[in-house]
Design brief:
The chain has a single domain (about 5-310), classed as 3-Layer(aba) Sandwich (Rossmann fold). Helices cover about 35% and strands about 20% of the residues. It is built from 10 helices and 8 strands. It has helices spanning about 5-15, 25-35, 95-105, 125-140, 140-145, 155-170, 195-200, 205-215, 255-265, 290-310, and strands at about 50-55, 60-70, 75-80, 110, 145-155, 180-185, 245-250, 270-280. Strands 1-2-4-3-5-6-7-8 form an 8-stranded mixed β-sheet, with helices on both faces. The two termini are about 35 Å apart. About 55% of the residues are buried.
């Protein structure tokens, strides 16, 4: 299927802006770019309660944002990790997705502001993501959540972190995770030649941009093959929680996301994978202008609601 007209319109808007590509900007200017895209995102839905706080981290306190769709009951919880190549984006860039996900899933969503590269390189982001998840599970009463109904979720780099946290939780004796939602995840930092990497080079993402992200987060090339960096290369993925894997047809990362879904399935992990036709890499963040972005949030929320036993969508 060709590029969806709504995706093409977005790409045309980006191209009309001119200027150097993201990876050629000074780091602070690059980090300002997501703020320019917020208006393309989902509507800013009201949520019953939002709290900004910190949890202990391995090096420094980790900021988190807690989205509570209702003030009653002890709810399931979804730990959310934002995308951005481990270099850009933050709690604000993904605020609207988290609001919608909380409301539609009926779960508490806790977004984690992990340390970014290049100031903090591998495994800093993964260590923060795991530490926050473990703390929330061990202090469930503080958050009004049921630690027995916990999932991880993330997009792109955040999808990488979600499944890396699942691997760490299995390897380190907890916490117990019920489900994982992986949205066009980075699963293989050694992938340079898959069909989607070649065909969609330059469609929002580029090889040069991916190299910049990799060089920032994983400057040591040997680290790129480690399971907690490239989970597709993990020797054993048995015992991981069931997964819902979202990929975009016109995305460089499509093949590695789908390959990871197949790897999980081959290991006996229950998996459902959905490719969204005509969509591009950041489409789930563009629900204000791309219908598929809203559809994907709704689909992910439904999977979480079913897996975690949330009573109703709010």
């Amino acid at each position: 299927m060709p590029l969806h007209p709504q995706c093409k319109a977005f790409l045309d808007i980006i191209a009309s802006g001119g200027g150097p590509p993201l990876h050629e900007l000074p780091i602070e200017q690059a980090r300002a770019v997501p703020k320019l895209m917020v208006d393309f995102g989902h509507s800013e839905e009201p949520v019953a309660r939002i709290d900004n706080r910190t949890v202990p981290g391995p090096v420094q306190p980790i900021p988190v944002r807690v989205y509570r769709p209702t003030l009653t009951d002890t709810l399931p919880v979804v730990m959310f990790f934002h995308g951005g190549g481990f270099v850009i984006c933050d709690l604000d860039s993904h605020d609207r997705q988290c609001r919608s996900l909380a409301n539609q899933s009926g779960c508490v969503v806790i977004a984690v502001d992990y340390r970014l590269a290049p100031e903090h390189r591998y495994p800093s982001a993964a260590d923060d993501a795991y530490a926050a998840t473990r703390y929330v599970a061990e202090h469930a009463n503080e958050f009004g959540i049921d630690a027995g109904r916990m999932a991880v979720c993330g997009d792109s780099a955040g999808g990488n972190l979600a499944t890396v946290v699942a691997l760490m939780a299995r390897d380190r004796g907890g916490p117990s995770l019920r489900f994982q939602v992986l949205v066009y995840p980075v699963t293989d930092f050694t992938d340079q030649s898959s069909p989607s990497m070649r065909e969609f080079n330059g469609v929002f993402l580029s090889v040069e941009q991916m190299d910049w992200f990799a060089d920032s987060y994983l400057p040591n090339a040997e680290d790129r093959g480690q399971p907690y960096a490239s989970p597709l290369l993990a020797p054993d993925v048995r015992g991981l929680p069931p997964a819902y894997v979202i990929t975009a047809e016109c995305d460089m990362l499509r093949d590695q996301g789908e390959a990871y879904a197949r790897k999980l399935q081959a290991a006996g992990v229950p998996v459902e994978s959905k490719r969204y036709d005509g969509m591009i890499h950041p489409f789930i963040s563009l629900g204000g202008i791309i219908d598929g972005g809203r559809e994907a949030i709704t689909d992910a929320a439904a999977k979480l609601r079913a897996a975690l036993g949330a009573a109703v969508a709010v």
